[in-house]
């Protein structure tokens, strides 16, 4: 049998920052950038969730495209010419970060966000210093919701919905600047479809969703990540084999996460795995 010498139609050639590279036809621009070790900022994107295109921080230039293109969702095409850093891109990203900083409290944003803001010399007060004005929602002993820190990235909606839990307890409510993440009919969490898996907390990039234990310690001024250690173990509640990361401070578990690259969990857990650690210590 004679093997075909025809090229693989699933592999295309593109130009990335002036260099010719090959990519799979189903890959996104962001996929290719990461394969080529080209850094692109993101906020709403997470590799275990479907892209929402909400933050627009990952925009890049594509030749012959009138507007900047979101790299997290745009699929590559043969002959595509892509630029990931330019004056136009830098200006767009800087102003987006400044808009976010004037609209929400980014004090607890993840390290990646803060590093990019520093790189682009972002002025957080350019459009006015943000003043927290919303009451933190505390409706149970497991986690809190602080809408002053919510950037509407929709990660929590995806994790609660089709990408992880399939509970659909939360979604976007309202329009325009009044949009917010809400339970159905804005009922309290205990009265909603929420099963308290905490996967929404695990994907939140800004601290808008937070363990009640962490929130209480921050309010008391005792939360200190420099004094915390993280130990990876296997959940003991069932035989699935989920990996747990126990965050320990002063010989007490203060919260539990799961590695995003763990092939069993993809960072997601159930209520027992994420919150069922009280038996490890004397809860007073």
Walk me through this protein's architecture.
The mean pLDDT is 92. The protein is an alpha+beta fold. It starts with 10 loop residues before the first strand and ends in a 9-residue tail after the last helix. A hairpin with a 2-residue loop joins strand 1 (11-16) and strand 2. It has helices at 29-35, 87-103, 111-119, 155-160, 199-203, 212-220, 271-275, and strands at 11-16, 19-24, 59-62, 69-70, 81-83, 137-138, 143-145, 170-173, 180-183, 209-211, 229-234, 243-249, 252-257. The strands form 4 sheets. A 5-stranded mixed sheet has the order 2-1-5-3-4, with helices on both faces. A 3-stranded antiparallel sheet has the order 6-7-10. It is built from 7 helices and 13 strands. Helices cover 20% and strands 20% of the residues. It has 2 domains: 11-85, Roll (Ubiquitin-like (UB roll)); 137-280, Alpha-Beta Plaits, CATH 3.30.70.
């Amino acid at each position: 049998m004679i093997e075909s010498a025809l090229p693989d139609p699933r592999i295309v050639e593109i130009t990335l920052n002036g260099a010719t590279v090959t990519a799979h036809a189903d890959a996104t621009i962001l996929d290719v950038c990461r394969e080529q070790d080209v850094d692109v900022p993101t906020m709403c994107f997470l590799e275990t969730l479907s892209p929402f295109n909400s933050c627009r921080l990952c925009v890049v230039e594509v030749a012959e495209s009138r507007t900047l293109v979101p790299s997290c969702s745009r699929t590559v095409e043969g002959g595509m010419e892509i630029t990931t850093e330019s004056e136009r891109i830098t200006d767009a990203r800087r102003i987006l970060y400044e808009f976010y900083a004037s609209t929400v409290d980014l004090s607890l944003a993840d390290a990646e966000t803060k590093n990019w803001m520093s790189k682009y010399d972002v002025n957080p007060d350019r459009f006015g210093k943000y003043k927290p004005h919303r009451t933190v929602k505390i409706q149970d002993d497991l986690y809190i919701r602080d809408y002053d820190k919510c950037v509407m990235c929709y990660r929590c909606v995806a994790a609660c919905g089709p990408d992880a839990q399939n509970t659909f307890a939360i979604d976007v409510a309202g329009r325009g600047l009044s949009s917010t993440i809400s339970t159905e009919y804005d009922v309290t969490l205990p009265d909603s479809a929420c099963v308290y898996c905490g996967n929404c907390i695990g994907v939140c990039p800004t601290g808008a969703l937070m363990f009640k234990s962490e929130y209480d310690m921050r309010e008391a001024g005792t939360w200190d990540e420099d004094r915390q250690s993280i130990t990876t173990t296997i959940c003991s509640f069932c035989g699935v084999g989920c990996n747990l990361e126990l965050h320990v401070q002063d010989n007490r578990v203060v919260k539990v996460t799961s590695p995003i690259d763990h092939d069993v969990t993809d960072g997601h857990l159930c209520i027992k795995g994420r919150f069922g650690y009280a038996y490890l210590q004397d809860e007073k």
